[in-house]
Amino acid sequence: MTDSFATSTTARLLVVEDDDTIRDTVCEALEMEGFQVTAATNGQSAWDRLRRESFELVVLDVMLPGINGLDLCRKLRELEQQPLVLMVSARDTETDRVLGLEVGADDYLIKPFGIRELVARCRALLRRHQPPTAAVGRFEIDDLELFPKECRACRDGIELKLSPKEFKLLELFMQHPKRVWSREQLIEQVWGVDYIGDSKTVDVHIRWLREKIETNPSEPEKLVTVRGFGYRFG
């Protein structure tokens, strides 16, 4: 899990785009905003960089030569330090957006897009994913332990590999056991009030979290669905 996310314009961004004009325009705009920007022209070169270097956010095109954006996004979940992903694509159906979120994108922007909107979404993603803080040093429920100040969680003493949003969801649930949270409330608490993406990302992240904390994710006992209302922990 990424230890921290830059909230200033010093954040390191990787732009992965095979179209020269779009790539140059995006990079120039982000650099003018003060971001540290690196460019990659295809999925393989991006993957090589991501294994060697640390980035806070990846602006990732879907249609790439070699490793496409969806497959690269899946591979990012293998990394110890997982960057945020803003996926961009001309594919604009709901199915395409949901697929992008399910493979790990944090937000999905449809081409053609305005440069100001892209910059705003980059800023919003970085702002929403600051390290969680809490006065309590440790939470323990059943076989789960969570250490807010250390941004880590364990199950049966074994540390879990959680993405930033998975950690923030688990922290929220463990802070408020038995409380039912709606999708909208979870988005406000975890993604932030300025989130402009699809609410279905909540369901995707709940499923990923269940895979890590439940004995049988298909029949969850810890993180349960309360039909018509939302989700409850415990």
The CATH class name of the largest domain reads Alpha Beta
What sort of overall outline do the alpha carbons produce when their principal axes are compared? globular
Structural class: alpha/beta
Spatial extent as radius of gyration:
18 Å
List low-pLDDT spans: 1-9
What's the main sheet like? 5 strands, parallel
How many helical elements?
8
In summary, what is this structure?
The protein is 38% helix and 21% strand. The chain folds into two domains: 12-128, Response regulator (Rossmann fold, 3-Layer(aba) Sandwich), CATH 3.40.50.2300; 139-233, Orthogonal Bundle (Arc Repressor Mutant, subunit A), CATH 1.10.10. With 234 residues, the protein is of the alpha/beta class.
Mind sketching the topology for me?
Elements: E1 12-16, H1 20-32, E2 36-40, H2 43-52, E3 57-61, H3 69-76, E4 84-89, H4 94-102, E5 107-110, H5 115-128, E6 139-141, E7 144-147, E8 152-155, E9 158-159, H6 164-175, E10 180-181, H7 183-191, H8 200-213, E11 223-226, E12 230-233
Parallel strand pairs: 1-2, 1-3, 3-4, 4-5
Antiparallel strand pairs: 6-7, 7-8, 8-9, 10-12, 11-12
Structure commentary:
The protein is an alpha/beta fold. 38% of the residues lie in helices and 21% in strands. The model is unreliable at 1-9 (pLDDT under 50).
